[in-house]
Write a structure and sequence with these properties.
By secondary structure, the chain is of the alpha+beta class. It has 14 helices and 4 strands. Helices cover about 55% and strands about 10% of the residues.
């Protein structure tokens, strides 16, 4: 492609067409021909080209099911897209349209779930002036209620701490983490460990609600007893089992919150016995984890994750 104004315009036209048709590798090649010979030039327009190339690479990686390296390529695009503001060129209107096309295409490619996963991070500092609308927070709590649990026992009991004095009292027992007092909402996941022991009325009630006949309920009760007896004989094992269920609910809540643009931070750094004493929990009830919800103060840092090949094996 000739390095003329007309040639550059044609290259970007071909780039936009390739994007629209899902030919992301070809889109990358359309601009690579322009950029490569001039890649060492100290020029914002050349850097902008590099950003657009990386946008196409990001789309190709998503297409191939590689979201994590795609994020890195997308970050490069975002970095060099900023060069557009400084550009003084007759092609600026063209480049603005190109960025709009890229951004729109990104929104189509990224599912709401993946976008939420990109957005979600362990937020350490929350804006104390911004509060989550009650309707949205109620929907986050509803996600916890709808979450799955082992045998459908739903052992979680959530405490939403809004009292500023109580939050202040909890903070020293939570390693003095600022999220405890700064977040818009603070949710403490507790578990009703005694209720879920095998043979309790609570367990039978949870099986009865399935509309089963007495024989089927008794069968479930026996299966449950055989599974839980080796666990419930040790308080720590039982507490660990019920806590696992809370982590499922908490993960669902954080991801759903991210779809609403609400930040979160799961917290394990606390003294469990101290927290239980401050909350004056009944015997048989324990604290599993804490999660803060609100709005970030600082920009989100880059996610650091292992490559899929390092965490997945096929047999």
């Amino acid at each position: 492609m000739a390095q003329t104004s007309e040639g550059i315009t044609q290259a970007f036209g071909a780039f936009a067409l390739a994007l629209a048709q899902g030919r992301y590798y070809e889109a990358h090649e359309e601009l690579e021909i322009l950029w490569y010979p001039r890649r060492f030039e100290d020029d914002d327009e050349i850097r902008f080209w590099k950003g657009c190339i990386n946008a196409a690479v990001s789309f190709e990686l998503i297409k191939r099911g590689r979201p994590f390296p795609s994020r890195k390529a997308w970050g490069t695009y975002l970095k060099y897209r900023g060069c557009l503001e400084r550009l003084v060129t007759p092609r600026k209107e063209l480049y603005v349209r190109i960025t709009q096309t890229i951004d729109q295409h990104r929104s189509f490619m990224m599912s709401e779930f993946l976008k939420a996963m990109e957005f979600r991070h362990a937020c350490k500092r929350f804006d104390t002036q911004k509060k989550i609308p009650s309707e949205q927070f109620d929907s986050i709590l509803e996600v916890a209620r709808l979450s799955p649990s082992s045998f459908g026992m739903e052992p979680w009991r959530l405490i939403v701490v809004r009292n500023p004095s109580l939050r202040k009292a909890l903070k020293p027992s939570c390693w003095n983490q600022s999220q405890i007092v700064e977040a818009s909402e603070l949710v403490i996941f507790t578990t009703d460990d005694d209720s879920v022991r095998s043979g309790t009325p609570y367990v039978r009630k949870m099986f009865n609600r399935r509309g089963l006949d007495e024989e089927a309920v008794n069968t479930y009760m026996n299966v449950y007893k055989n599974y839980l007896e080796p666990i419930e004989c040790d308080e720590a094992l039982l507490r660990n089992w019920t806590a696992k269920q809370c982590y499922i609910a908490c993960a669902n809540m954080m991801t759903y919150a991210a779809t609403l643009g609400i930040d979160s931070c799961p917290i394990e750094g606390f003294d469990r016995e101290e927290i239980e004493a401050i909350l004056d929990l009944d015997e048989g009830r324990s604290v599993a984890l804490i999660c803060a919800f609100g709005y970030r103060v600082n920009p989100q840092g880059e996610h650091k994750r292992l490559d899929p090949g390092q965490i997945v094996e096929y047999r």
